[in-house]
Amino acid sequence: MSIYDFDFKVPDISGNLVSLEKFKGNVVLIVNTASKCGFTYQYEDLQKLYDRYKNKGFVVLGFPTNHFDNQEPGTNEDINQFCKLNYGVQFPMFSKVKVRDEGAEPLFNYLTAVKPFKGFNNFHPSSRILSSLINEKVPHYMHGNSIKWNFTKFLLDRNGNVLHRFEPTTDTVDMEKDIEAIL
């Protein structure tokens, strides 16, 4: 099954309801984001990926969340301005959502059910710090398949099938070969 079988509709950063069906036919990278996270620098690389491959049918969809350690406290307008001014973000951004636990956006429940958590990239310098932080502040987050932190990414093929899950400790450059393979 694909995300298009469920007709997910989510509000964009301006509050307009958007059917994800709009992106059918594109290779899609869905990422939960935050403006005050140690991984916020990934916005720059996500924009570079979008610029590099958008003419080949690739799109990044950003979903801000304040779920992890209050790292996205602003309004949708604040988030939109921050992304544009600091990182030149031009890929579609959506309204702030919950990505785990009660009240989570159904899209993220689906994504995590299809691609479970398999651990952080232990070679990434932030992996141990992130694991320690989660274990200290919210140890129950490490159990199950839910999203563990900001900048978790899901790569979908042109038909909306979820092919890969990349944790925040996977740098965007390390995803590029997977993106190119399905473009």
TrEMBL record:
It comes from the Bacteria. Belongs to the glutathione peroxidase family. It comes from Psychrobacillus faecigallinarum. GO terms for molecular function: ligase activity; peroxidase activity. Signal peptide: none annotated. Residues 1-183 form the Thioredoxin domain. This is Glutathione peroxidase. Pfam families: GSHPx. Keywords: Ligase, Oxidoreductase, Peroxidase. The lineage of its organism: Bacteria, Bacillati, Bacillota, Bacilli, Bacillales.
